[in-house]
Amino acid sequence: MRTNRFDGFCDACAGHVAAGRGNLTGRPGRWQTWCLACAPKAPPRAGHEGWHQTPLAALDFETTGVDPHHDRVLSYALLDQPGVELSGLIDPGVPIPAGASQVHGITAASLVGAPPSAEGLRVVLDWVQGVIDRTIPLVVFNAAYDLTMLRAEARRNRGL
Ligand SMILES: [Zn+2]
Hints:
Number of strands: 9
Bound molecules: zinc ion
Strand order of the largest sheet: 8-7-6-9
Shape: elongated
């Protein structure tokens, strides 16, 4: 939640909210302005379990570059409940730029025997679906990047 930068009207009580005197929630195209009295409130401290105390799962990729729409996944690491860790290499079928290899150390030689994208990504997608089905929060260091890349890879490998 952030301070509203522009004049508006409260989504709850329809009262006028001067710029900088209320709150803003939402996302581009779907912003909601709130007067301070009506602004959504966080639950009281210790009144809930806390996300950090519930089971969590984590996902991370190493890739051929920094463009999530066009680069490819080279490896995955999936952490689930204690004792459940999946990791693997994926052969994307495209060259790995030297700059990317310098970052993560994965080279074409590393990928000898690795499954192709469609096969390797199936493991990742099945695991993510399982996490969603179990309603376990997914923690991703750079979620906008990794999850955009996962979607792009799934689309590229239609049939996944
Ligand atoms: Zn209001």
